[in-house]
Amino acid sequence: MVKIAIFASGSGTNFDNIMQRVKKGVLRNIEVTALYTDQPTAACVQLGQQHGLPVHTYRPKSYVDKLAYEQDVLKQLEAEQVEWIVLAGYMRLIGNTLLDAYEGKILNIHPSLLPKYKGIDAIGKALNNGELETGTTVHYVDAGMDTGQIIAQRKCPIYQDDTKAALEDRIKSLEYELYPEVIQQIIR
Ligand code: GRF
Q1: Which residues pair with 8 in a beta bridge?
Q2: How far is the centre of ligand 1, averaged over its atoms, from the C-alpha of 88 (Å)?
Q3: In this predicted structure, what is the pLDDT of residue 22?
Q4: Which of 58, 79, 109, 185 has the most CB atoms in a 10 Å sphere around its CB?
């Protein structure tokens, strides 16, 4: 079993999807040790509890700086012997403390065809720019925002009368297939 930690800040549907696949045995040889979140009131917290997982909640602003925050997170990761970090809607840049400790072992999923539309509101930006297609990307995490090496992508069309909500649903359906596949392939 390879121990992974999932980091989320929001609705946590990718996290939930990964958990369901682990539980069904579709995603094999993976043990999710805990959910880590920087948003104690986010919906992902309740999902974590429903899955019977430890949920580690942090308030980054209560630390003197990012270094102190990440050192605290790292202590917990080490206590759980976590080998890989899987970001699933974690809305914070990973700093040197975690990058050094988990070099080449942090994955992220981003709702655009990187290198296009890095950062926030990637879906709205693709829609407003009149793109005919967009999609999702799984990549390794480095110090930049959505700049790490690309591992895999899936595309979907953008329709003429599309809404952001409809497009987001379309992209998430891709993510629910792609992220578990890549996790299974990469994490051994
Ligand atoms: C996903 O679209 C992912 O690509 C991005 O944040 C979103 C998280 O959604 N990084 P959810 O919290 O998993 O529903």
Answers
A1: 37
A2: 6
A3: 97
A4: 109
Give yes or no for a contact between 140 and 107, defined as CB atoms under 8 angstroms apart.
Answer: yes
Q: Rounded to two decimals, what is the model's pTM? A: 0.98
Ligand 1 mutation target, pool 16, 175, 183, most atoms within 8 A of CB: 175
Which domains are present in the chain?
2-110+138-148+172-186 (3.40.50.170)
160-175 residue pLDDT tens: 999 999 999 999 999 9
Average pLDDT, the chain: 98
Closest residue by Cα to atom 7, ligand 1, is 89
